[in-house]
Structures are given as structure tokens and as C-alpha cells.
Design goal:
The mean pLDDT is 85. It contains 9 helices and no strands. By secondary structure, it is mostly helical. It is globular, with a radius of gyration of 19 Å.
Length: 196
């Protein structure tokens, strides 16, 4: 709604832009999360049984290999594996793997030692994202987001390890709690602040 008032579009044009994904570049997340939430009733049943959990783990494994590891290896190392080219793995692409992995990890309690290791992995992953993005971009003589895309191996390691590091943490600070409560809204309007 904020973007409607900022753009001075007619209501018809604004609604058309919503369905064409032409409001703002950062709102891709809203479209992605709508699809994930629509899938929740189907996947919720899987979390209720051991066989379902096994299927989710299998899905996550195939997702990590086909959507995270292989595309990066293919682009960076020019590693071509005919198996992935001959079969259609489109079902495993996208953000569903993060969603399901979060569903699995939410029920697991992590020890302090595991959280410390996860935090170290977060720091190392962050550095690797920076290092390989810089190195690869220099080799191409132009910016490239292969290593900081949402489905890159280092971003995957960073996201999962950071989730684990914070999930069972006793660190509760008022400011962090407040930011956490409002993070979705902050995300939705941050472009307005960024542009002004």
C-alpha cells in the first residue's frame, strides 16, 4: 500500500503491476513466501510421521545437491554432470529446501558447543562469500553474484549455521527482540529509506 501512494499509480495499474511483479525489486520475497505458505498444508502432514520426515530429508538432500552444489560447480569449475542435464530437477529448485530444513531444525535443540561451532561456520562462510565473489568477479572483469546468490553453497552454509547459532541462544536483548518482531516490515520498507 505504501508503494501505491508513493508511485501515484491508478489502482488498476497498481494491481496490474502486482501481478506482473513490477512494484519493487526487493518484493521478490513476498511472492516467494506466498508460494511457500500455500504449500504448508501439504508438507505439514509429512512432519507428522517418521516416513514423512524421511521424505523431507531426502528432498533436502536432493535440493542441496541439485539446486545448491551442482549449479555452482557447473558455473565455477565448468563441471558438467550429464545426469543433472538429462533429468528435470526443477521441482527441487527455489526456496522450498530452506523452508523444509527450517521445519526440521526447529524441533532440534542445539548445545552451546554446537551453537559456537555454527557461529564460527557463519563467520567463515561470510568471509568465503566475500573472497570468492571478489576473486570470481575479477576473473570475469565484471561483478558476478554466483557466490552470494541465495542458492550458493556459502550462503546456504551461512544461513543454516546462523539459524543454528541463534536458535537456542539465551541471548535476549530488548533491541534485538524489537528488531526481530518488526523485521518483516523493516524489510518491506527498507528500499524507501535506501532511495531517499
Amino acid at each position: 500500500v505504501i508503494y501505491f501512494f508513493l508511485r501515484n499509480d491508478s489502482i488498476t495499474l497498481f494491481i496490474t503491476k502486482i501481478f506482473q511483479k513490477k512494484i519493487e525489486f526487493h518484493l521478490w520475497y513476498v511472492y516467494a513466501i506466498v508460494g511457500l505458505y500455500l504449500a504448508v498444508p501439504f508438507f505439514k502432514k509429512l512432519f507428522d510421521s517418521e516416513d514423512g520426515i524421511l521424505l523431507i530429508k531426502l528432498y533436502i538432500f536432493i535440493w542441496v545437491v541439485s539446486a545448491i552444489l551442482y549449479p555452482t560447480a557447473y558455473r565455477y569449475f565448468k563441471l558438467e554432470i550429464p545426469f543433472f542435464n538429462n533429468f528435470n530437477f526443477n521441482f527441487f529448485y527455489g526456496y522450498m529446501g530452506y523452508f523444509l530444513l527450517g521445519g526440521l531444525l526447529r524441533n532440534h535443540t542445539f548445545s552451546k558447543k554446537e551453537r559456537i561451532v555454527a557461529f564460527l561456520i557463519t563467520i567463515i562462510s561470510t568471509w568465503l562469500i566475500y573472497y570468492f565473489t571478489k576473486k570470481y568477479s575479477y576473473s570475469l572483469h565484471k561483478p558476478n553474484e554466483l557466490f552470494f546468490g541465495y542458492l550458493s553453497p556459502f550462503v546456504f552454509a551461512q544461513a543454516v549455521s546462523f539459524f543454528i547459532a541463534l536458535k537456542d541462544s539465551s541471548f535476549k536483548h530488548g533491541l534485538i527482540q524489537k528488531i526481530s518482531t518488526h523485521s518483516y516490515w523493516i524489510y518491506l520498507i527498507h528500499v524507501i529509506v535506501y532511495r531517499n
